Amino acid sequence: MFKRILIAIDETKLAERVVDVAASLATELAADVAIVHVIDESRAYILDLAVLDEVLISNLRSDGVAALDSAYRRMPADLSVQRKLVQGDPSEMIITTAENWQADLIVLGNDSRGRLAHFLLGSTADSVIRRAPCPVVTVRGGGKAADDQPTAHAVAGV
After folding, report:
1. What domains are there in the chain, each with its CATH number?
2. 94-114 tens-digit pLDDT
């Protein structure tokens, strides 16, 4: 059923749990894996000048490569794994990467902020869930459940 699993990661501790959950799924399903990290351009945007700070972009790119390398090292050796570093809006780029790579499943973290924070700020996970071309599994972080073992929430895709 799921033969191509896209794992979306960032630089947080939650990314390790996301990779572990996705690696378990990929192993059980004998699926190919692509790990994507998005360089969020908004973090390097200089509002007064209306330009991107190239030094910050370069630093974010280095951080992204390090995150991809760390995730890659967590994957079982017998899986086929690709690394993808893309730049843009995180939710948009995750969806685009899933479409271009023809992913059957997306696995990403959900920071479990409160409802008010999601309403005011939005969430990459929420945006991906609403617009994904395939089913999405979110891995929750924080709280007691996170200290025990990974908790995944499957969300039906389009």
Report:
1. 4-155 (3.40.50.12370)
2. 999 999 999 999 999 987 655
Q: What is the DSSP string of the chain?
A: ---EEEEEE-SSTHHHHHHHHHHHHHHHHT-EEEEEEEEEGGGGEETTTTEE-HHHHHHHHHHHHHHHHHHHHHS-TTS-EEEEEEEE-HHHHHHHHHHHHT-SEEEEEE----HHHHHHH--HHHHHHHH-SS-EEEEE-SHHHHHHS--EEEE---
What is the distance, to the nearest Å, from the Cα of residue 148 to the centroid of all Cα atoms in its chain? 21
Which residues, given as ranges, of the chain have pLDDT below 50? 117, 120-121, 144-151, 153, 156-158
From the list 136, 141, 91, the residue with the least C-alpha distance to 111 is 141
pTM of this structure: 0.84
CB of 74 closer than 8 Å to CB of 20: yes
Pairing verdict, β 81-88 and 32-40: parallel
Say if residues 97 and 34 touch (Cβ distance below 8 Å). Answer: yes
Alpha carbons within 13 angstroms on the beta-carbon side of residue 33 total 31
Quick check: 133 and 100 in contact, CB under 8 A? no
